[in-house]
Amino acid sequence: MTAGKTTLRLDDFLPYRLSVASNRVSSAIATAYQALFGLRIAEWRLIAVIAEGQGMTQQALGAATRMDKVTVSRAAIALVDRGLVARQPNAQDQRSHLLSLTAAGQDLYESVAPKALELEARIFGGFSPKELAAFRAVLDRLEASAAALDPE
Amino acid sequence: MTAGKTTLRLDDFLPYRLSVASNRVSSAIATAYQALFGLRIAEWRLIAVIAEGQGMTQQALGAATRMDKVTVSRAAIALVDRGLVARQPNAQDQRSHLLSLTAAGQDLYESVAPKALELEARIFGGFSPKELAAFRAVLDRLEASAAALDPE
DNA sequence: CTCAACTGGTAACAGATGAAACTAGGTACG
DNA sequence: CGTACCTAGTTTCATCTGTTACCAGTTGAG
């Protein structure tokens, strides 16, 4: 057998498949959130995380949501403007503030969360729990190995 | 048990996990291609598809790569400018042209492809063929079910 | 103390992206 | 064959995203 060029079928290339699938899913979710609640993804993520642990700094929120601090800042400003999130001064550190949900934010969260789970079910339904667990495990390890390559 | 609010842990929310993992992978790949070959993802995708089937229209390339026609147009222009791709007039339809790799484009492809596969192996290595096949299968079905929800 | 280095958050800028308008060419039907 | 509609590709524009610069506040070494 002679040298032989490497051939690569794009449709078989996993990073490509992953990207396409993820973009489709993100876009479907983004459309739904926007239409239902006027929230962008970043805003929704903040709400979800703040609901779990009130009184976080933006710093902490960025780490929890894997979002850039600029993205977090913008989303936080938007949420405060809409009266969904409140900022309290942080006694420990005057540069930062602690974010928590207002009553309205809490209400919104309580109507968004079920919808989110429903959407997830709609998209990821039709898979067995085992399949999903395996999928999740692959995602976890991928995240780690990709981050190792690109220590952004 | 009383009504009980729905709780949602962001880290357990699959669309979120998928998005984070995919972004990490895409970013690692984009960085590598840019550094090694000065190619952006869209350009690399076009090269890969043209290499498989010379003489395609941009229309066809868009379908094959799931990219917007604007994205395809820009990537095509960049590749032509760099002398990697050539446009031949399409006798059947004067509005479009047929794209093929120049000798330089072919050379580049032949050095990019192995690198791409190596990167893929680096990121997706450590999984068994079975795991990868299952993962791929989930991606396929996801793509379909998300597209159905968001008929963009 | 105080000065240098550092960190949380915002603002300003720049590149990327996609929708919509536009141009040139194609198709259908009288 | 002419006119109304359709499509390939490009350009324009408005938006989004992230990098960099910036300001205010914090920390630590001397």
From TrEMBL, chains A, B:
Entries under Pfam families matching the protein: MarR_2 (PF12802)
SMART domains attached to this UniProt entry: HTH_MARR
Domain of life: Bacteria
Keywords from the named record: DNA-binding, Transcription, Transcription regulation
All residue ranges annotated as the HTH marR-type domain in the record: 11-144
Protein name (database record): MarR family winged helix-turn-helix transcriptional regulator
Lineage, opening ranks: Bacteria, Pseudomonadati, Pseudomonadota, Alphaproteobacteria, Sphingomonadales
